[in-house]
Amino acid sequence: MYDFAYHKPSSVADAVKILSADPEARPISGGQTLLPALKHRLNKPSAIVDLSGIAELKGIKRDGDKIVIGALTKHIEVANSPEVKAAIPALAQMASTIGDTQVRNCGTIGGSVSNNDPAADYPAAVLGLGATVVTDKRRIAADDFFQGMFTTALEPGELLVAIEFPIPEKAGYAKMRNPASRYVMAGAFVAKTKSGLRVAINGAGPCVFRQPAMEQALSSNWSADAVGGIKQDADGLNGDIHGSAEYRAHLVTVMAKRAVASAG
């Protein structure tokens, strides 16, 4: 690791003040991404702003027709939440399959969404449910938040505070995991919401994205068969030693079928 200053603010306002004053400072929540990067000297922040002491960033609650989850809420808490299980069981199921036991007890939903790793799970739920990302400054619609590999609409010094998930009529999630790393090779989150059908694909491309052809098919026929004949274009998808772009394109259709089936 390189040397860095360490701060542990007790409020969002204090954290934002530190981050805004120092463009090279980086916030840390669960540390599942930043800590390995620091260890291998892939990142050299001037300061680390530890968010773990900010109580207002934690917790899960139902607010009318949506579930609000604080940025510092851990994966295991989402998986075990009675509110989430009752309102959006697909989200609780997703959280229960992230990484392994150690990761689920350390990692946070805000850290995962802010990092926007192509193989992360939560971005698919945020985009698939049409959630709203709440920061210290504004509210950002899911369709505007994810902008590319490890890139989001968050501005320097801006802090993700919470995520508001609309409660869907139905929702399901399925993924194919790399057996070694457990990262998603291709996944699909499908949801039938008040505003329409949404299908979000993660793992397969550089950034989570919607699949409009599948959305259109499901709008007239909610069934696994409706998406079974839709082929994902392999152009622009990820390809590596674990799977080609063509293989991932095939997985998109398979995972979408499974997601619809799991939604019922």
Structure description:
With 264 residues, the protein is of the alpha+beta class. Among the domains are: 1-51, Uridine Diphospho-n-acetylenolpyruvylglucosamine Reductase, domain 2 (2-Layer Sandwich); 170-263, Enolase-like, domain 1, CATH 3.30.390. Helices cover 35% and strands 25% of the residues. The chain has twelve helices and 14 strands. The protein has helices at residues 12-21, 34-39, 75-80, 82-87, 89-96, 101-106, 109-115, 122-128, 142-145, 212-220, 224-228, 245-263, and strands at residues 5-7, 25-28, 47-50, 60-63, 66-70, 132-135, 139-141, 146-148, 151-152, 160-166, 170-177, 184-193, 196-202, 209-210. A five-stranded antiparallel sheet has the order 4-5-10-6-7. The protein has a four-stranded antiparallel sheet with strand order 11-12-13-14, sandwiched between helices. It has a three-stranded parallel sheet with strand order 1-3-2, covered by helices on one side. Strand 6 (132-135) and strand 7 (139-141) form a beta hairpin.
